[in-house]
Amino acid sequence: MSFSIAENLNKIKSLIPGDVSLVAVSKTKPIEDLKKAYEAGQRIFGENKVQELREKQPQLPNDIEWHMIGHMQTNKVKYIAPFVSLIHGVESFKLLKEINKQAIKNKRVIKVLLQFHIATESTKFGLQLKEAKEILDSDEFKRLQNIKVSGVMGMASFVENESQVRLEFATLKSIFEELKSSYFASADSFKTVSMGMSGDYSIAIEEGSTMIRVGSSIFGTRN
Ligand SMILES: *Cc1c(COP(=O)(O)O)cnc(C)c1O
User: Fold this and answer.
1) I need a labelling partner for 76 at 20 to 30 A (CA). Which of 2, 15, 96, 218 fits?
2) Once rounded to an integer, what is the mean pLDDT over residues 39-66?
3) Could you tell me which of 53, 118, 127 has the C-alpha nearest to residue 90?
4) What integer pLDDT is reported at residue 120 of this predicted model?
5) pLDDT confidence of 91, banded at 50, 70, 90?
6) Residue minimizing CA distance to atom 10 of ligand 1
7) HEC string of 170-209?
8) Closest ligand 1 atom to the C-alpha of 69?
9) In this predicted structure, what is the pLDDT of residue 124?
10) What is the rounded average pLDDT of the residues 90-112?
C-alpha cells in the first residue's frame, strides 16, 4: 500500500517536536511531487545538485525556503546565490569565501552550516573540529560580512548499528555546543543542528537535532 505525499508529510510532522524544522528533500523528484508537498503546507525544500535547484526554484511559489544540502563546487555558488536560504554542506574556507563574495554581489546575507565529518565512512564529506576552529579563528573569516554561520550539519554512517549512529549524532551535537560557547555565545542565529534523514531522524532528534532532512519517507524511494 502506498501513501500520498501529503499523508507522509503529516505523519512525520505528527512524530517530530514542533521546534524541529523539516527539510523536504526533493532531489530527483518531479516538480508535481514538490507541488503536492507545497499544497500540504511544506515550505522548506532541500536539493543536493545546483543544476536541479536552479531548474526547480522558478517553477514554484517564492515563499519557499530553498536549502542546498549537497556537496558543492565553488564555481557553482553564483547560480544559487540570488535565492538560496541555507547552504548546509560548507566544508572548506574556499567555499565559505566564495559564498560571501556571491552574497555581496546579490546584496544578501546567506546563511550557512558547517558540515562535519562524523561518520566512520571515509566517503562522507566534512570538516574536522580543528579545521573549523582554524577557519573561525582567522582574521579573514571575521571580515566575511555577508555570510551567517547558523550552525552545523552532518551525516551519520549508513549502518544498522543504532548505537554507532547515536554516538555520531551525539558527537555532532557536542561540536555544536563547543562552537556555540567558544565562538557564537552571543549570536542567537547560531542555533541549527542539521542531522537526521529518513532512516535515522528519530535517533537524531533524541540526540539534539533541530533540523531533519527527509526525502524518501516523504516522496518515496528514489531510482
Ligand atoms: C538525500 C539526502 C537526504 C535525504 O535522504 P533520505 O534517506 O531519502 O531521507 C538527506 N541529507 C542529504 C545530505 C541527502 O543527500
Assistant:
1) 218
2) 98
3) 127
4) 82
5) very high
6) 213
7) HHHHHHHHHHHHHHCCCCCCCCEEECCCCCCHHHHHHCCC
8) 13
9) 67
10) 98
* pLDDT mean over 170-199: 97
Residue the block writes with cell 545546483: 50
Amino acid in the structure at residue 40: A
Handedness of CA 210, 26, 10, 2 (dihedral sign): negative
Strands 192-194 and 21-25: unpaired
Query: What does the pLDDT read at residue 123?
Result: 67
Distance CA 68, CA 175 (A): 22
Question: Which residues are within 8 A (CB) of 98 and not within 5 positions of it... i.e. 6 or more apart?
Answer: 74, 77
Distance between Cα 123 and ligand 1 center (Å): 15
d(CA 82, CA 44): 17
Say how far apart CA 200 and CA 215 lie, in whole Å.
12
Looking at residue 1, what is its pLDDT?
41
Residue 115 in grid coordinates:
558540515
Summary mean pLDDT of the chain: 96
Q: Distance between CA atoms of 136 and 116, rounded to whole angstroms?
A: 14
- Around ligand 1, the residues with Cβ closer than 6 Å are 25, 27, 48, 69-70, 155, 197-199, 213-217
Question: Which atom of ligand 1 is nearest to 201's Cα?
Answer: 9
